[in-house]
Design brief:
Helix 5 links the parallel strand 3 and strand 4. The protein has 11 helices and 9 strands. The model has no long low-confidence stretch (mean pLDDT 94). By secondary structure, it is an alpha/beta fold. It holds the Pfam family PEP_hydrolase.
Length: 276
């Protein structure tokens, strides 16, 4: 599907009152299973590979591999097993070793329908973040990447972390905005430090309102922090206006793997045999 066809489908879905649900896929089986469950949008990026290897999602922000090379390698595993769901690539827009417009053309040629800005320096704060901005590796490069992707007619779904970023990404041509509430909580390798769900709902609304002040037609989903399970997403949607869905990564693939494999193993351990 083209970018416009995807957006037309999503807007019709929203008009019918059906939320948009996007999910991260770190493996082919995740993508196949999520599609079977009716996922609307899939995103693959380096943290998915690390996450499904048992490492925390923030591994994707550290020097454990070339993020843009990893996502192209993951494409060979994921794209062939997805039949009708748009798949986005998580692109490291601050990568100083890529000619970004040329790389985005390769992303499109590989079969991706769009992009997301991940890894993102938006998850980094403090002096380290200030130094990244001062030395030419700041969030502005991620906005440039989204703008270049839009020029190539790729669907764009960036993460944003504050109202100014939300406005800037809307100006850059973001189609689907994802206010990011931080590293997802819950599970065996989830965050312990996070906003409350009440605080997250307020912040999601603030970022969505900022983006909509620039582009009233932008679609806004919620993600991260305490928004970990379906009931959390329902709380946010019940306490916000104009938030039309949820995007989950750990929530879609890590939690089910952790709980499902553990439960299946426990059930097998409970079987008995006849003693002679």
């Amino acid at each position: 599907m083209s970018r416009q066809e995807i957006l037309d489908r999503f807007r019709a879905q929203v008009a019918a009152g059906t939320p948009i649900v996007g999910g991260g896929a770190g493996t082919g089986i995740t993508a196949k299973s999520a599609e079977a469950g009716g996922i609307d949008l899939l995103v693959i990026y380096n943290s998915g590979r690390f996450r499904m290897a048992g490492r925390g999602s923030l591994s994707g922000l550290l020097a454990y591999g070339d993020a843009n090379e990893i996502v192209m390698d993951m494409a060979r595993e994921v794209l062939p097993v997805v039949n009708h769901t748009p798949v986005l690539a998580g692109v490291n827009g601050t990568d100083p070793f890529r000619d970004m417009p040329r790389f985005l053309a390769q992303v499109k040629d590989a079969g991706f329908a769009g992009v997301q800005n991940f890894p993102t320096v938006g998850l980094i704060d403090g002096v380290f973040r200030a130094n990244l901005e001062e030395t030419g590796m700041g969030y502005g490069l991620e906005m440039d990447m989204i703008r270049a992707a839009r020029d190539l007619d790729l669907l764009t779904s960036p993460y944003v972390f504050d109202p100014e970023q939300a406005k800037d990404m809307a100006r850059a041509g973001a189609d689907i905005l994802v206010p990011h509430m931080g590293l997802t909580t819950s599970g065996t390798i989830g965050a312990q430090t996070a906003l409350t769900i009440e605080e997250a709902a307020v912040k999601v609304q603030e970022l969505a309102d900022a983006a909509k002040s620039v582009n009233p037609d932008i679609l806004c989903l919620c993600h991260g922090g305490p928004i970990a399970n379906p009931e959390d997403a329902q709380y946010v949607l019940d306490h916000t206006d104009g938030i039309v869905g949820f995007y989950g990564a750990s929530s879609i693939e890590r939690f089910p793997a952790e709980t499902g494999i553990k439960k299946q193993t426990e059930d097998f351990k409970a079987i008995t045999f006849r003693k002679s």
